[in-house]
Amino acid sequence: MKTKDTTVFLEVKNLVIHYETDNGVVEAVNNISFKMNRGETLSLVGETGAGKTTTALGLLNLVPNPPGRIIAGEILLNGENLLKMSPHQMQKIRGSKITMIFQDPMTSLNPIETVGDQISEVIKLHNKVSRAEAAQMACDMLEKVGIPAERYGDYPHQFSGGMKQRVVIAIALACDPELLISDEPTSALDVTIQAQVLDTMRHLKQELKTSMLMITHDLGVVAETSDNVAVMYAGEIVEYGALRQVFKDTRHPYTQALFDSLPDINKNVERLIPIKGLTPDPSSLPNYCSFYDRCTKRMEECRKTDPAVLDVGDGHLVKCLLFASERSSHE
Amino acid sequence: MGRYILKRLLQLIPVLIGVMLLAFLLNEIAPGDPATLLAGGESATPEKIAQIRAELKLDDPFILRFGDYVKKLVTEGNIGISYKTKQPVAAEVAHRFPQTFKMAAISAVLASIIGIALGIISAIKQYSFLDNIIAMFSLLGVSMPVFWSSLLLILFFSINLKWLPSSGFSTWKHWILPCVVIGTSMAASIVRMTRSSMLEVIRQDYIRTARAKGQVERVVISKHALKNALIPVVTNIGMHFGVLLGGAVIIETIFVIPGIGKYITDAIRNRDYPVVQGSVLVLALANSFVNLGVDLLYAAIDPRIRTQYRNMGKAKKKKTALPLGGKAA
User: Fold this and answer.
1) Is A117's Cβ below 8 Å from some Cβ in B?
2) Exposed, middle or buried: residue B71 (CB in 10 Å: 0-12, 13-18, 19+)?
3) Angle in degrees, CA A305, A309, A315, rounded to 5
């Protein structure tokens, strides 16, 4: 079990996604790149509006259009560029190879279809099975996520929030996906249910050997679930690395600030340390470092150029000028 | 569900009593005197008028007459005898109502098909050229008075082209023009309702879920979006249909169709109270059934409403059971 298949199966290259509204262009995702190995969990962390969900929708080519548009970049799944695929080819990928668990389970299920039908729908779409077989498989899926199969014919309004999220998970995992994207799967649930749902997800992920892209702003969830972490700020990945690298060897001032703003139960502090200021307006991003205005370690040079992404050692990437000199010493 | 329907049917009784009382009262306070009109107008002798008043029992107190009316209705099923023709209202209504119903039903079906189809196209092609064209036509349909569009259509199809008859109701050809006129004006409002309802539903998260499953767009729209968007549209259609059952007086007049609308307006003009009374009662009944039909249609579309109906039946049971068995449970 421990032997990791380290082949890269998903590669995102220079992805740019904009929302073109009447009030200007919102630059939601700016030139982000990352790779995922089979079986690994990558967490995308960042504040609201950092472009995490847009990135995820981009992977499924489901960015609402209009106003959203994928401007540039490549998304390679097993070497094939998803952005070059026809709508029909993309429909075959969605729901079978790449699936998604959405943020709000309350609204993610069709209120007038039975939960069983909603699960068997995806099974029928991607497998050559009869109606009865699909229903049987849907029942198995329900059992897997911890819902009795007898509830196949029930409607979403007869379920609690946590149960609904389990149904959404069942839909996402029904066709044995290669990549499971989960967009803040627990932020709409209360804390006790969060733990249960995360547990179910982790368990099934191991059982099905699915890779997972976890979108969250909960660093606790990240620590529990991820192999790698990408920290997003204003549509860019500002720090990327293995969980250990990012958590124990934090480099970027923004990541550091995120950790500093967490409460620490070992220390007796009156107030938490917030990150001062607000994220920059994504419709008018500066042409220098986008974190400059809030950065505590800013330098004169930071206002002059947009920093390049640097490898500070062993695949640990940081987009900050502070480490420009360090990199030169590496070389 | 059967329980719910039974409950709704029982609710009809107070509704109908209320409607009868209101219609009676309105006739009572309306100016004009049926006896004077029947006697031949202002020139009639007071004796003649008094005689007719006595015959029609118009001098009896209001409560007595109302009681008499309800008694006849319940015991004989008689909804009134026309002052003017001395014919039972029921017979005349039975003759006219089917014409009105036919016109209303054909128009409503026509309008629903066209309206919903165009509404969906409008919504999924939002802001496109097609959407604008449809919006323009629906605006035209809503704002164009029916008498004017009727006359234009008669001018074109009956007089110039001589394809369709301009009045009457004997063959299916006669029904085309009136139903098209009513249908298009109704379709116009259904288009707008369907469009806005679809646009709202398409933005919902569960539509994104359906797309994320890899479902083809056609099924996403027809299965997931349309069914959810249909509830306000069904309300709209039901409302229109109810109004149409009351008779489309202008259309009936233009196309010379003996419908119920014209019957009632003529009766009001003649102060023929029993006719007004009886027709209003029939219409109230018809409207109540349309409403019940719409409510049942909701339940067929939306399981949440189904649960609600089921609980309505149970709620009463629980209330009575609580004081006794509340603690045991």
Assistant:
1) no
2) exposed
3) 165
